[in-house]
Structures are given as structure tokens and as C-alpha cells.
Write a structure and sequence with these properties.
The chain is of the alpha+beta class and about 425 residues long. It has 2 domains: about 1-265, no CATH class; about 275-415, no CATH class. About 40% of the residues lie in helices and about 10% in strands. The chain has helices at about 5-20, 35-45, 55, 60-65, 110-125, 145-150, 195-200, 220-225, 230-235, 245-250, 270, 275-280, 285-290, 300-315, 320-325, 335-345, 350-360, 365-375, 380-395, 400, and strands spanning about 25-30, 75-80, 130-135, 155, 160, 170-175, 205, 210. β4 (about 155) and β5 form a beta hairpin. The longest helix has 19 residues, at about 110-125. The chain starts with 6 loop residues before the first helix and ends in a 15-residue tail after the last helix. The model is unreliable at about 390-415 (pLDDT under 50). The structure holds cobalamin (B12) and iron/sulfur cluster (2 copies). Cobalamin (B12) binds near residues 100, 141, 145, 210 and 214.
């Protein structure tokens, strides 16, 4: 343990250096066991972590970082602003409005850790022999709790941390150190009687008592979930292909937020120049070329193409739906199933013909079930359903009975709302 006589001066210099390094606002908190242990354990026990089993596996360390880092005394926590643009999302080009704002630029984990390590170098220079370790997101910490303790914001009803200056468009990272530094004061909760985030969440994922049920959160469904998205939630995902910003968009504290000048978070050309159809068409090589090293690498090709197909089914984007027909023969069964869903939702004679052909050759039982459900989609126009039922009884007569050139239904939703 290292006590410092000039801790307050060092803390101020750390904050100044952090700002110079692009770490935004810095707060300091002692490392100690969680004050919200019951809350966290209950969240896990009620299955709110969904398929993120790593949360359960590392629960004890999250609740008390000293179990793993016995030497650590203080967390220097950075809240790095990332808002990439001020304007309404729908005015952004290409895929940008379909991707959560924190992920439109470069991979922030790497960037934040590099900057925090530079801050560690500064600490070493000021206090030779001290120890430090940088993390952002991927470490087993309750980062929001650490940040709240370090005075970087309050835990809003949306579960997002809202900064004392009044917005939640920032990412967190921390530098653990064996130095003992004076901590900052937590800020008061200013959500008041507002419930805008709870009311606006498209999937009803925000429960009372500031809990998010990951099973329903679009961020989880589009980024972390491997395999099929549960059917009842697909429509609610709207046009999102990676993450979701709805609970932050409606937060009154975010209304006047200024975009960051940090180029790290500027929308990349891989998103601005591409459309939904490009995403639907991605093969392995195309995925690696466009998305490796970006935040969108996380769901892998299977997840990203699956998400694009769901967005296509919801948006009625003609080019993307045209591309979806080819995905019925994709090597990945999850992608084939999502393609069936998108085409079933859109209805129409040509889509039905493709689905019937796919059903005839499909050997995977789960994809077959998707195709059956798509042929029977209650969302399809009534004449589609009728024709689909007839198709099952007498496939050979389908083309003549369904009638020519039935119009594809109009768009339900063009971009996420
Ligand atoms: C798992 C995870 C998710 C999951 C689960 C989300 C969740 N709400 O728990 C999913 C995939 C759904 C997700 C989504 C998002 N995430 Co996320 N996620 C994480 C991760 C890895 C762990 C979070 C966790 O431990 N959850 C368990 C719950 C119980 O903990 P918690 O929400 O953090 O709450 C704790 C404290 O805040 C504390 N607490 C503190 N004060 C108070 C006060 C009261 C009254 C109470 C009751 C509790 C309380 O209680 C809890 C236990 O300590 C963290 C990184 C990390 N290592 O912490 C990023 C992190 C929380 N995510 C982040 C972001 C940006 C997002 C998204 C906005 C991304 C997007 N746009 O799509 C969404 C927001 C969804 C939402 N409304 O929460 C940021 C949050 C930044 C911020 N300003 O808050 C983090 C910190 C990553 C980072 N390094 O910046 N995420
Ligand atoms: S990120 Fe989207 S789905 Fe998740 S809690 Fe917020 S509004 Fe709901
Ligand atoms: S929308 Fe309202 S309730 Fe939700 S986090 Fe913002 S201020 Fe709090």
C-alpha cells in the first residue's frame, strides 16, 4: 500500500493529463466491494444476463475487484465522450443510422486502453515503482458502479450512467493503481419523475428498479446473442443492425449534448458507403475485409447478416429483400432462417415461390420450421396466407392460383425509430 502526502495535487495532475490524452473526464474512487451486491446477484439469478454466462462466471471478481487484484487500491475512471453527430440519426448516410452511436467509429476498447496505459506511464513517471493496469469494458468490473462512486454520473432509470454535466454519451475505462488517491464525490440522481426511457424502449427491456433484461434488449439481441433471435422480438428490433440508442435518444439530459471532436468516434466509411443490401450479401471474405477490427466484428458474420435480414424484413427495403432471396441457400442455417423470416414478412408471390423451393431442399429441421412459419406469417397480407395454404395442399398449382404480379407490401419502417 502506498500513501501519498500530495495526493490531491497528484489527482489534479492525473485529471489534466487524462484530458490531454483524450480520456475526457476523470474521476477517482477507492476500490472496495460493491455497494449493490444484492441488486447484481438478483439480476443474475433472475436470468437478466441472458446468454452472457461470462457475467456469472466472473461475478465474484466483479463484486470485489480485490479478489483478483489484491494490490489495487484506487480506480482512476475515465468517461470518454463519443457522440459522433448531433443531427437526427435518420439523416445519416448508409448504415450509420442502424448502428448504435458508440460503434460507428473505431474499436473503442483498444483506443481507450492505449490512452489509459499512457496515463499509467505518466503515473509511473510521477511515482516511480507504482503499479497500474488498464481496462475498458472487457474487464470483470462493475464499471458503472465504479464510475458512479468516482463522481462521473448517476445510474439512470435506463441503467445508463448520466454525467454530472448531463448526458450519457460516454464510454468508461479504468486504470487500477496501488496508489492511494483522494476519491471524488458521487453525484445525486436527477431522473426525478421522468420515465421516458422506460416508455420508449421498443422491447420493454427496461424493468422497474433500474434493471435491464438483456433477453429483451436490442443491444444484446444484435451484438451478444449467437444463433436465432426469438421470433416475438424480431419485429421490435425495427431497423437496428448493431446495438440500440433509443433509451438514450429520448433522455432529456441528452438533448443538448455536443458531438465529440475525437476522430476515433467519427462514422467510418465502411458504414457510410454501405447499404442494408450490402450487409445482407456479405460472405466471410467480405465480412473480414469490411468489419475486422471494427466494433461490428463482435456478432461475427452470422450475427451481422442475421441482423441485416431482420432489418430488411422490417423495413421493406426492396434491394435488401432481393438480396435476401439468395441467403436462402447460405451455408449458415441461422442466416437461412432469418432470410426465410424476412421474405415471409414481406409476402408476395415471388417470395413465396422461393420459400417453397427452399422448403423442398432444406434438411435442417430448425430452418424448415422457420420456412413453415414464414409461409404462414400472420403479418403477411390475407391473400398471401390464403395462397400459402393452398400451396401446401397443391404446390404444383401455386403459380397459376396466386395470380401474377402481386404487389409487394409497402415499407413498414425504413430506419429504426
Ligand atoms: C453486460 C453489458 C451490457 C448488457 C447488459 C446491460 C445492463 N444494463 O446491464 C447489454 C448487452 C444489454 C448492454 C447494452 C448496452 N451497453 Co453495455 N455493458 C455491459 C457490461 C459488459 C457489464 C454491465 C453489467 O455489469 N451489468 C449488470 C448490471 C446489474 O450492472 P449495471 O447496469 O452496470 O449496474 C450496476 C451499478 O450501476 C450499480 N448501481 C450504481 N448506482 C446505483 C444506484 C441504484 C439506485 C441502483 C439500484 C444500482 C446502482 O448497480 C449495478 C451493480 O453494481 C458493461 C461494462 C462493464 N464491465 O461494466 C458495459 C457498459 C455498461 N455498456 C455500455 C453501453 C454504452 C451500452 C449500450 C448503451 C450500447 C448500445 N448503444 O447498444 C447499451 C445500453 C443498454 C442499457 N440500457 O443498459 C457502457 C455504459 C456507459 C454509460 N454511460 O453508462 C459500459 C460501461 C461499457 C463501457 N466500458 O463504456 N451492455
Ligand atoms: S438499448 Fe434499446 S432495447 Fe436496450 S434498454 Fe435501451 S431502448 Fe431498450
Ligand atoms: S429518460 Fe428520464 S428516467 Fe430515463 S435515464 Fe433519462 S432522465 Fe432518467
Amino acid at each position: 500500500m502506498r500513501a501519498l502526502l500530495n495526493g490531491a495535487i497528484l489527482a489534479r495532475r492525473i485529471k489534466e493529463r487524462g484530458a490531454e490524452l483524450g480520456l475526457g473526464r476523470i474521476g477517482i474512487a477507492p476500490i472496495r466491494p460493491s455497494e449493490h451486491e444484492t441488486f447484481f446477484r438478483q439480476w443474475l439469478e433472475e436470468g437478466r444476463a441472458a446468454g452472457m454466462f461470462w457475467m456469472q462466471r466472473t461475478a465474484e471478481q466483479r463484486l470485489d475487484p480485490r479478489r483478483r487484484f489484491a494490490w489495487a487500491r484506487t480506480a482512476i475512471v475515465a468517461a470518454v465522450p463519443y457522440l459522433p453527430y448531433r443531427e437526427d440519426r435518420s439523416g445519416q448516410p448508409g448504415l450509420t443510422p442502424r448502428v448504435a452511436r458508440y460503434a460507428v467509429g473505431r474499436n473503442y476498447h483498444r483506443v481507450l486502453v492505449e490512452r489509459l496505459e499512457s496515463l499509467g506511464g505518466f503515473l509511473e513517471h510521477e511515482c516511480p515503482g507504482c503499479r497500474s493496469l488498464a481496462y475498458s469494458d472487457t474487464g470483470a468490473f462493475l464499471e458503472r458502479e465504479l464510475a458512479a462512486r468516482a463522481g462521473l454520473g448517476w445510474f439512470g432509470k435506463s441503467a445508463n450512467l448520466i454525467g454530472p454535466g448531463g448526458d450519457s454519451w460516454f464510454l468508461l475505462g479504468e486504470l487500477l493503481t496501488d496508489l492511494e488517491l483522494p476519491g471524488d464525490e458521487p453525484v445525486a440522481d436527477r431522473c426525478g419523475t421522468c420515465t421516458a426511457c422506460i416508455d420508449a424502449c421498443p422491447t420493454g427491456a427496461i424493468l422497474d428498479a433500474r434493471q435491464v433484461d438483456s433477453n429483451r434488449c436490442i443491444s444484446y439481441l444484435t451484438i451478444e446473442l449467437r444463433g436465432r433471435v426469438p421470433r416475438p422480438l424480431r419485429e421490435e428490433i425495427g431497423g437496428w443492425v448493431f446495438g440500440c440508442d433509443v433509451c438514450q435518444e429520448v433522455c432529456p439530459w441528452n438533448r443538448r449534448a455536443e458531438p465529440t471532436a475525437d476522430v476515433t468516434f467519427r462514422p467510418g466509411s465502411h458504414l457510410q458507403a454501405a447499404g442494408l443490401a450490402d450487409l445482407v450479401r456479405l460472405d466471410d471474405a467480405g465480412f473480414r475485409a469490411a468489419y475486422k477490427g471494427t466494433p461490428l466484428e463482435r456478432p461475427q458474420r452470422q450475427g451481422l447478416v442475421r441482423n441485416a435480414l431482420i432489418a430488411a424484413g422490417n423495413s421493406g427495403d426492396g434491394e435488401a429483400l432481393e438480396a435476401a432471396r439468395d441467403r436462402l441457400v447460405d451455408p449458415d442455417p441461422v442466416v437461412r432462417g432469418a432470410a426465410a423470416w424476412a421474405l415471409g414478412r414481406q409476402g408476395g408471390r415471388r417470395n413465396r415461390a422461393r420459400l417453397l423451393a427452399a422448403r423442398a431442399r432444406e434438411s435442417d429441421p430448425e430452418v424448415r420450421a422457420e420456412i413453415e412459419a414464414a409461409l404462414d406469417d400472420p403479418e403477411a397480407a390475407p391473400e398471401d396466407r390464403e395462397a400459402a395454404l393452398e400451396d401446401r395442399e397443391a404446390p404444383a398449382q401455386r403459380v397459376t392460383r396466386a395470380g401474377p404480379n402481386r404487389k409487394v407490401r409497402p415499407s413498414r419502417m425504413v430506419i429504426p425509430t
